[in-house]
Structure formats: structure tokens, C-alpha cells
Amino acid sequence: MVTATTTSPANDNSERLPVAGLLALAMTGFICILTETLPAGLLPQMSRGLNVSPSLAGQTVTAYAVGSLVAVIPLTIVTSTWRRRKVLMLTIFGFLVFNTVTAISSDFALTLVARLFAGVSAGLAWSLLGGYARRMVSIHQQGKAMTIAMVGTPIALSFGVPLGTWFGAAVGWRAAFWIMSLLTLMLIVWVLTKVPDFPGQKKDERRSLLRVLTTPGVRPVLAVVIAWMLAHNILYTYIAPFLEGAGLKGRVDIVLLVFGLAALGGIWVTGKFVDHALRAHVLISLAAFALTSLLLAIVPTSQVMIYNGVVVWGLTFGGAATLLQTALADTAGDGADVAQSINVVAWNGAIAGGGIMGGILLDGYGASSFPSVLIVLVAAALAITWFARTHGFPPGHRLSKERVLGH
Asked: Does the global pTM surpass 0.85?
């Protein structure tokens, strides 16, 4: 069995965090998100450039998601014995190659293939980043390290995607993908100079998928991931029609900017509390999101309520990835990388599910139905977290007592 030894919380600041290396991991996440979402803002230009309809051009986003979902678990298992920086460099090199192919391709089929394999690279990267960040620091700094390593996601969503869309519209969508390749080249140098290497798992230490899934606490954490992210993505995907009811149709960009800034604040808050009070932070975040959804259900047309609600929504969502991945890695122990690969599937499945559920709700009941469904989903996540007290979301400091993390 693998045991985490007790570490005094007083030692939290005794060592300097390897910020440069952790930010390289954050930059990897930034490129993952930007590569995934950039076509969504450039569909008209891409459809003209590839001589296909906008709906077909939209399948470049679908292909990316399919690549991530299908490949992440088997690739994570296959590469679990490889040296960690070798796997990280493989994923980054994949972005370089496939974004470059996308930039130069004039054939829609080739572009789809490139997007599919870019998604494969992203899936493997996401399964790797959390565990990599934890290995770069001592055990009592792991929560803070995860916070830094995950900061690339909200930055990409808040600033990278709008800037990329604006740039692509101004100088062409191919130039936007060339910029992605240039950023990736810079990242390769960054990783080689600032990110340390680590050995992979020994073959006799490798954990099977079934064994990881049956580890106590893993399934409750994954269930919270699915419920929380479903709720988030229903609202995030269809934020424009929801805002229309409050007369904010022309302010979607401002609302999303407010959300992004609040999410950055949420990450900062999470960095302060993830090690000391992870369970409490998850419970408070979910309760605040549920209360906000209730208020939006009661007064869906109040602009003041919507702006305040978006701030709370962003604050609670900003640290979600750090909180949930830390809880999952703590619970899975030696099976953390495999567990994170399952988390990638759960997270991306919730993104797709949010799009499907939100579309059904929008067509059948209108955008005003969103808050009621959000309340149900977030309440389910809250209940699961509450009852996962022994395994999954234990109380107190992460290292306040000896924990058994696996077999």
C-alpha cells in the first residue's frame, strides 16, 4: 500500500515553488484550450477557406473532442511507464504538428484528421498535467502547485479565445493557427529548460483501469465532476439565449469577461485553501452556485442579479479543476494518472452533455428553464460531496493525518 505521511501545515511556505516549470504546464493547458475552441470563433472564415458549410466546419471542434475522448485512457495506460517529460514533449509536439497542418491544409478531410489528432494530444496532456505538477513539489505544496498548473484554462477562456477570434477575423484564420504553432515552439524550449524529468511507473506498479475505478472515493469524485460540469456547461454553452431574456443580448462579451475575471479570482482563492480545507471549499462552492441558480430562477430578467450571479458563478468555477483533480489524485494514489485520464473523459463528456441537454431544454422549454435544472444537478453534486466524507472528500487538511491511498 502507498501511504502519505503526515506533514505539518506550518511547513507550507518552507520551500520555494518551481513557478517557472509550473507555468510551463499552465501554458500547455492554455494551448490545449485555445486549440480546442479557436475554430468556434472562426467558423465563417474556416468554412469559406475550406469550401464547406459552416455546419461542416463546426465538425472540426467535434473531431478534436472525439480524439480526446477516445484516446486518452488507452494512451495514458500505454505511456504510464515512459519517462514523464518524454510524454509531455510528445503531446506538445503533437500540437505543433497538427496545428501547423491545420494552418496549411486546404483539404477538409485532412483538416479533420489533423484536428482529431490534436485532440488526441490534448487528452494525453490533460491526463498528465495534474500528476506532473504534484511530482514537481513536496507533498505539502501539491495543492498550490496544481493551482498554478491549472491557471492556463481560465486565462485561455477569458482572454485567449476572444483575442484569437479577433486576430483570426482581422488577418485570417490560418494566421491564428500559425500563431498557435509559434507559441508551441516557444513552449518546447520552455519545457526543456524549466520542467524537470521524472521516471514513469514500473510495470509491476501500474494500476489497471478497473482497479483505479474501484478505489474507494474515486467514483464519488468523478460523479461530482460530471454533475458540476454538466450544470456549468449548460449555462456556459447557451449563455447568449439566457442573457437575451434580461435584455443583455448585446453584452455577451462583457458578461463572459466578468465571468473570466471572477474565475481568475476563484483560482487565487483556491490556492489559499485547497490544502487546508478542500472539502469545505468544494461544499461552499457548490452551495454558492446552487443559491445563485435559485436566485436566477426567481428573477431571471434582473440585470443586476445576472451580473452578480455571474461573479459568484465565476468564483466558484475558477478553482473547480484544481479542487476536483486534487481530490481525485489524493484518492487514487498510485493510480492518479489513470484516474486523471478517466477525469478527462468525464469532463469532456460533461461538455458534450451540457451542449445536448442545454439544446433540448432551450428548444423545449426556453432558456428560463436552465436555472431549475442547474439547481438539481448542483444539489446532486453537493449531496455526493457531503456523503463522500470518508473517501473522496475527507475533512480537514489534506495531510493532517495518515491516509491510505491505494493498494
From this structure: no
